[in-house]
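Need residues for this backbone.
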């Protein structure tokens, strides 16, 4: 059986094989399984927050808890843990769809033309 659902006002939406959904509402927020998550603020190269929300694009999700994507202004890799309720800037990203989670609770992201970093979700460290 095929079902469909329209997410009114969303700029774009995504889902995973487990049925988790995420939708980006431009310049405002993301929903993860219908829970609202405010977008992070754009960070200047100096490290200061700009006061403008950054759209996090190319969203990928894991376990209905973790979310990652690429900032549209900064090109940073943004990571969100729904239990902690905050965004973490993991550094530069590169390319289109630069992030993915594997089944071992590791987030991989491309940060250069031929460079990949891995971030362990369990221990919150780079591998």
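Answer:
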């Amino acid at each position: 059986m095929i079902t469909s659902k329209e997410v009114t006002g969303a700029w774009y939406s995504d889902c995973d094989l487990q049925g988790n959904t995420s939708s980006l509402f431009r310049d405002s927020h993301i929903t993860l399984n219908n829970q609202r998550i405010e977008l992070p603020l754009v960070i200047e190269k100096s490290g200061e927050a700009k006061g403008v929300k950054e759209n996090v694009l190319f969203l990928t999700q894991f376990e209905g808890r973790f979310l990652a994507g690429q900032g549209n202004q900064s090109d940073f890799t943004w990571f969100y843990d729904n239990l902690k309720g905050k965004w973490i800037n993991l550094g530069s990203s590169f390319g289109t769809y630069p992030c993915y989670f594997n089944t071992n609770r590791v987030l991989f992201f491309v940060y250069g033309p031929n460079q990949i970093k891995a971030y362990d979700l369990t221990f919150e460290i780079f591998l």
